[in-house]
Amino acid sequence: MPFLKRYRTVGLFMSLIALILSFIGSLKLGLTHINWMTLLDVWQATDPTREQLIVQNTRIPRALIATCVGASLGMAGALMQALTRNPLASPGVFGINAGAALFVVIASSIFSVYSYVSFTWFAFLGAAMSGGLVYLLGSFGRGGLTPLKLTLAGASLTAFFTTLTQGILVSDAGTMDQVLFWLAGSIAGRNLDTLIYVIPFFVIAWICTLSLGGAITTLTMGENVAKGLGQRTGWVKGIAAICIILLAGGSVAIAGPIGLVGLIIPHIARSIAGTDYRWILPYCALLGATFLLLADIGGRYLIMPGEPLTELLTGAGARITSDEVPVGVITALIGVPFFITIARRSISE
């Protein structure tokens, strides 16, 4: 046991180092080259250079948003997989991201709302509604709530909400122009004002989620076992559900529906930390933040002007409207093969 605790502690420390290095890389790497001296002097310069202004106004907010959103999605996925005992559970797969995105598009199209402050409340409402519908649909039929029915309900609602979202966008060109890049899942162009409004919800959800670690571990042993040990399982599930809504809804409000982070990260965390959610949840926070930072850095280089992929696409007549790929596309490219692997493993078991 002491060896296991030491191993987990060392792993957590290494994850923190990886997060710090990824954060620094997010500040330094991109289309505009930033040297080390410029980066070190970024807050001390009385007359900032162009490069320093880019770091101050663009890259620091972007890195902070990626860190917060990645940590939140990783923790939300871990909670969902624990509560449903479903290895495929995540905000993206279970329709929570799609529901939040639909409500944001409705807010933009019908109510002419374009501020991220207002988006936050609509995203929370959409996340809560979609999560409740998935749970309700998964409970119907013989046998009650099962992991398979939850997955099918989530996939169906995701398709339904996505279709409604696309229908609204097709019929409202103005809304499409406003939210199309956001819908792909992107942290580009965001500022600190966006994060400052949502960060209180994130902090509350992070604290509550980490404090639930022991209770969630007990709950994964079985509800009867948890009740036998004196746990009030209804309260634990209710608080966890609220945390999921705050984490996923806030993430969608800031960065759009970034998928599959909440699916990938909990599996990686469990492979390191075992089955104890007192360790899994902190790992999910650090690894989720690191993963999204690295995905964002990768998106800056994939179609950077002069890169082979850019030349190939433009030579084939493709229309490129940005110097980078939205981070949601990168997470999907990585996450879809991971999803297929987990699904095949779950079916075979």
UniProtKB/TrEMBL annotation:
Gene3D superfamilies: ABC transporter involved in vitamin B12 uptake, BtuC (1.10.3470.10). This is Iron complex transport system permease protein. It comes from the Bacteria. The chain crosses the membrane at residues 12-31, 60-80, 92-113, 119-138, 150-174, 194-219, 239-265, 277-295. GO terms for biological process: siderophore-iron import into cell. Belongs to the binding-protein-dependent transport system permease family. FecCD subfamily. GO terms for molecular function: transmembrane transporter activity. One of its GO terms (cellular component) is plasma membrane. Keywords: Cell membrane, Membrane, Transmembrane, Transmembrane helix, Transport. The keyword Transmembrane helix applies. It is a multi-pass membrane protein. The keyword Transmembrane helix applies. Its main location: membrane. It is found in: Cell membrane.
